Amino acid sequence: MFKSRSSILVLVLAGLAALAPFAIDTYLPAFHVMAAEFGTDELAIQQSLTFYLLPYALMTLCHGAISDAIGRITTIKWGLAIFALASIGCAFAPNVQTLWLFRALQGVSGGAGNTVARAMVRDLFSGAQAQRVMATVQLLFGIAPAVAPILGGVLLGIHWQAIFIFLSVYAAIALWMAVRYLPETMTAEKRIVFSVQGIFATYGKMLKHKVFLGLIACLSLNFSAFFIYVLASPVFLVKHLHLNSQQFGYLFIPTVTGMMLGSWISRYTAGKVAPARILHWAFAWMLFTASCNVALQLWASSTMHSAWWLAILPIALFNIGMAAAMPVLSIAALDCYPNLRGTAASAQAFMQMLCSTISSALIVPLVWHSTITLASAMLIMTVLGSLLLLMIRQPKPPMMVVQD
């Protein structure tokens, strides 16, 4: 167990990280209502996810470098303040185009807390403790995707605008807690001068680091294999599983429970089991459950068996392996650049959001028309991530070392 002060730090860092899933998942139950209100179709509302995710992904390249230059807390202040104002803009958008504009502004600012939180975990903790803290942050962060759509359904009972007002209040509270409880881990003597040329030079070096690229790509593909179901949930749940807007918890509660269990496994095994063994087990489990998912959907389709749990159980089981692997991959990637953890966290977050953006804009509209194609997309992403992990294996890569 963590001491009192450490527990508070972990809770605040988890709160910062959880802003991203709240910004994505809370308004998913409102897609149908918002489409009717704006006089458009659900695809136009779904594209507001892309308008959020693309700027989010691009700006994550800068948030870490900015925090390396001006400090972690100052970066959090600006990011969350802008996000809170943009959320109010979304709430009072008169048309879908204005909604797109303010969602883009949310995306520009929303990644500051998440990116800086990753860097601060490694700033404040080391070795096996860093893996335990990262897993604990992920455990608490994992609650957000389960709570967000359920809360969104409740707020939808008031009005869809209440969802975005909630996001504004959440950002304001997270900002206050960060300023109140988090120490500045990037002190003046450690800071690096910010320059666009310097950012390009640093990322140019990172593009040549095969182990670093492989680690963050594995992490991103694993997450996206699950995230396609989040992005497709309005169609997946309502059209294919015949659930309503108040039953989004049928997807999110089991799948997030799987994430929480995987995070607990990673935390419990930190310092006891070699990270390489954790990864081997996690990837084998993900391949097995993703394959079973495809088989189950083919069977259900051929027998006309439409029980909703047959489509959701494999995703929840998949998330156990995905969440167990994430802290190990994340810490190993950050340790590739110990003096530039903010920038490394940015690259990590960018890769994850880039995969999510591609999924939102291109992959999900192609595969959401059936449970079989969604399951197939999950399996393909898992296979690609597994192949990448095999390609970057070395005799003693960073992830293979147990630090205490």
How would you describe this structure to a colleague?
The two termini are about 15 Å apart. The chain is globular. It has 16 helices and no strands. With about 400 residues, the protein is mainly α. It has a single domain, classed as MFS general substrate transporter like domains (Growth Hormone, Chain: A, Up-down Bundle), CATH 1.20.1250.20. It is about 80% helix and about 0% strand. The protein has helices spanning about 5-25, 30-40, 40-70, 70-90, 95-125, 125-140, 145-155, 160-180, 195-205, 210-230, 235-240, 250-270, 275-305, 310-335, 340-365, 370-390.
Question: Any descriptors?
Answer:
404 residues; mainly alpha; Growth Hormone, Chain: A; 16 helices; 0% strand; disordered C terminus
